[in-house]
Design goal:
Layout: H1 3-26, H2 34-50, E1 74-76, E2 86-87, H3 90-104, E3 110-116, E4 119-126, E5 129-135, E6 141-143, H4 146-150, E7 165-172, H5 175-187, H6 196-204, H7 209-214, E8 218-224, H8 235-245, E9 254-256, H9 259-272, E10 280-287, H10 290-296, E11 306-310, E12 315-327, E13 333-344, E14 347-353, H11 357-362, E15 366-367, E16 370-376, E17 380-386, E18 396-397, E19 411-412, E20 421-422, H12 428-439, H13 451-459, H14 466-469, H15 474-477, H16 485-498, H17 503-509, H18 517-527, H19 530-535, H20 538-542, H21 549-560, H22 562-573, E21 597-601, H23 609-618, E22 622-624, E23 633-636, H24 642-649, E24 653-655, H25 657-665
Parallel strand pairs: 2-11, 21-22, 21-23, 23-24
Antiparallel strand pairs: 1-6, 3-9, 3-10, 4-5, 4-7, 7-8, 10-11, 12-13, 12-16, 13-14, 15-18, 16-17, 19-20
The structure holds 2-(butylsulfanyl)adenosine (IVH).
2-(butylsulfanyl)adenosine binds near residues 84, 115, 136, 284 and 308.
InterPro entries: BRCT_dom, BRCT_dom_sf, DisA/LigA_HHH, DNA_ligase, DNA_ligase_AS, DNA_ligase_CS, DNAligase_adenylation, DNAligase_N
Enzyme class: ligase
Keywords: DNA damage, DNA repair, DNA replication, Ligase, Magnesium, Manganese, Metal-binding, NAD, Zinc
Length: about 675
């Protein structure tokens, strides 16, 4: 391929991928398969690698990959990002309508939009290119979060006209993504987010864009900020134009001539809102005509031409009958309130997590109390507070037991955590939860082995450890309830098939604290085999991108345990695959690192370790943690220690930073 051909091909691939991206993330209507998309994307990555001079900032490959920032830079909003006045009932909407008409006469049309419960952001496009994204901040000054916003796939990196325009909208996390994220966080013993809004905010506040990239954020654009070449006469036309430019606008927007129709719209959505896959907290009503908007102007805080109708908070009163304790996979004991069933935000609620003892004490929640319930972020039931006026004197103060409710061993509060934990590694509740985790979808994904079956097998003492699963026989299973010959055959087949799973599934399934499925993926791809993982030390784990010191320490401690070593040996002899079967990045055979095993040690001036590692891997090398006979090259920065000595001993080729840079730049 000539340079010219490469340039054209890169351009064509970028255009093609922009279109697929738009169809998938903005229109929700993909026209090509994921495989085809991935293939096209890889072709572009490879070509841009080869011809970096043709890689543009708006290339679809440039969504992630920026380096973590030290801090966010401030951004001034030339057109302030205002907030809105609120209306809480129909009468307040009629008052708003009257105030508008007193100033501009009776001919007023209103646009009604869903009020998305997320974070307001500003997106700046110059000559059609996305150049800067910022938070609202205090309305006058926000923070530059371009790197994070670039990872939001429904934000176009390039729009359909070479327009210079600032648009505004709300970044949010879909409910489904929020639930999945919290589930993953809880299984990694991380604090769950209280609601989708906090999850979205937490993601945009990260200095490392890789975190936002994993969070599945989305956006609806709902207004124009600075726009010198403004051509449209109404807000609804602006929305239409934004859509034409390739922005994602909300499809539920409607225009009405009378305030009574507006009120009907707010009433309809008060009920329908729970059906949406994102949270809304009200309806925004805007005067459509830009001319009238300008005539109406602003009060000190907000525009006179718009108002936010806020849905009433959905709370319910009920009785707390009991507090149930459950012991999780990591031994944490979680209290749950058992409630008299009550309707809240579209569903019946009969349980609410109380999280930990501190929360019960803080809210002074007692057995048989009358409590107010709401759904945090419209989804997760929680106890807001106790109605103390309703107390009769029969309520009982709740005390955390001193012993594990499942195994009777004493509970501990290790390292000042709020959670009480059962630290008995043989606690049946923990073993059972551990097995449920092991067979779950993101782990070994064993079909037919749901929670119920695991419980059955466990209670019949057929399984206690993971290894026991692989020793089950038809004779064990046939006598069980609801187990016919066919389901037994299928189950044993599914267990057998799971032996061939790639390493990351097994690694995640082991349930090492803080190791989620993403981290397991990274570790498996990095180390390749279980043996390599078991030989590695804390520093080796820490050298892996995205693996922090807390996780590194937890993995190292985990593999040090004799019990774990025995388990792995047993799984090996039962025939479980212990290698990573995922895709290894293809690299050209003439690359200096092709098929080479490389170790990196010491401190570097011009590059950081993660970069060095990523570049070597992209060039076909494998980066490992410790120097051995298999090591081909040691990249040694300043202050290289024992790895350097060992490389000298083993006659491994040693490169300094200058030699590395020269090779990478060649
Ligand atoms: S219009 C002056 N439209 O609600 C115009 N805001 O209190 C101000 N919001 O800060 C914004 N959905 O974060 C507008 N369709 C929508 C909205 C919306 C959510 C948020 C936004 C704003 C706050 C207004």
């Amino acid at each position: 391929m000539t340079r010219d051909e490469a340039k054209q091909r890169i351009q064509a691939l970028q255009d093609e991928l922009h279109q697929y991206n738009y169809e998938y993330h903005v229109l929700d209507n993909p026209t090509v398969s994921d495989d085809y998309y991935d293939k096209t994307f890889r072709e572009l990555i490879n070509l841009e690698d080869e011809y970096p001079e043709f890689q543009t900032a708006d290339s679809p490959t440039q969504r992630v990959g920026a380096e973590p920032l030290d801090q966010f830079v401030k951004v001034d909003h030339n057109v302030p990002m205002l907030s809105l006045g609120n209306a809480f009932n129909a009468q307040e909407l009629r008052d708003f309508d009257r105030r508008v008409k007193e100033r501009v006469g009776d001919q007023v049309r209103y646009v009604c939009e869903l009020k998305i419960d997320g974070l307001a952001v500003s997106l700046l496009y110059e000559n059609g290119q996305f150049v800067r994204g910022a938070t609202r901040g205090d309305g006058k000054t926000g923070e530059d979060i371009t790197q994070n916003l670039k990872t939001v796939k429904s934000i176009p990196l390039k729009i359909r006209e070479e327009e210079t325009i600032e648009v505004r909208g709300e970044v949010f996390m879909p409910k489904r993504s929020f639930l999945a994220l919290n589930e993953a966080r809880e299984s990694n013993s991380e604090e769950p987010f209280a609601n989708p809004r906090n999850a979205a905010a937490g993601s945009l506040r990260q200095l490392d864009p890789k975190i936002a990239a994993r969070r599945n954020l989305d956006i609806f654009l709902y207004s124009v900020g600075e726009w010198e070449a403004a051509t449209t006469a109404s807000h609804s036309e602006r929305l239409k134009y934004m859509k034409e430019l390739g922005f994602k606008t909300n499809p539920e927007t409607e225009t009405f001539e009378s305030i009574e129709d507006v009120i009907q719209f707010t009433e309809d959505w008060t009920v329908k809102r729970h059906e949406l896959d994102y949270e809304i907290d009200g309806i925004v009503i805007k005067v459509d005509s830009i001319d009238l908007q300008e005539r109406l102007g602003f009060t000190a805080k907000s525009p006179r031409w718009a108002i936010a109708y806020k849905f009433p908070a959905e709370e319910a009163v009920t009785t707390l009958h009991d507090i149930e304790l459950s012991v999780g996979r990591t031994g944490a004991v979680t209290p749950t309130a058992i409630l008299e069933p009550v309707q809240v935000a579209g569903t019946t609620v009969q349980r609410a997590s109380l999280h930990n003892e501190d929360l019960i004490i803080e809210k002074d929640i007692r057995l048989h109390d009358t409590v107010i319930i709401k759904k945090a972020g419209d989804i997760i039931p929680e106890v807001v507070r106790v109605v103390t006026d309703e107390r009769t004197g029969n309520e009982q103060v709740f005390r955390m037991p001193e012993n594990c409710p499942e195994c009777g061993e004493p509970l501990e509060q290790p390292g000042g955590e709020v959670a009480w934990r059962c630290v008995n590694p043989n606690c049946p509740a923990q073993l059972k939860e551990g097995l449920i985790h092991f067979v779950s979808r993101n782990a070994m994904n064993i079909d037919g082995l749901g929670e119920k079956v695991i419980e059955q097998l466990f209670d019949h003492e057929l399984i206690q450890t993971i290894a026991d699963l692989y020793k089950l026989t038809p004779d064990d299973l046939l006598p069980l309830e609801r187990m016919g010959q066919k389901s037994v055959d299928n189950l044993l087949k599914a267990i057998e098939t799971s032996k061939d799973n790639s390493l990351e599934r097994l690694l995640f399934g082991l349930g090492i604290r803080f190791v989620g499925s993403k981290a397991a993926d990274t570790l498996a791809a990095q180390f390749g085999t279980m043996d390599a993982l078991m030989e590695a030390d804390k520093d080796d784990f820490e050298a892996v991108p995205d693996i922090g010191d807390k996780m590194a320490a937890s993995i190292a401690t985990y593999f040090e345990q004799d019990q774990v070593k025995q388990l792995i040996d047993e799984l090996k002899s039962l025939g479980l695959n212990m290698t990573y079967l995922g895709e290894i990045v293809e690299a050209s055979e003439d690359s200096p690192f092709y098929d080479k095993t490389v170790v990196i040690t010491g401190k570097f001036t011009d590059m950081n370790r993660q970069d060095i590692k990523a570049q070597i891997e992209a060039l076909g090398g494998q980066v490992t943690g410790s120097v051995s006979k298999k090591t081909d090259i040691l990249i040694a920065g300043d202050d290289a220690g024992s790895k350097y000595d060992k490389a000298v001993d083993l006659n491994v080729s040693i490169w300094d930073e200058a030699q590395l840079l020269e090779t990478l730049e060649a």
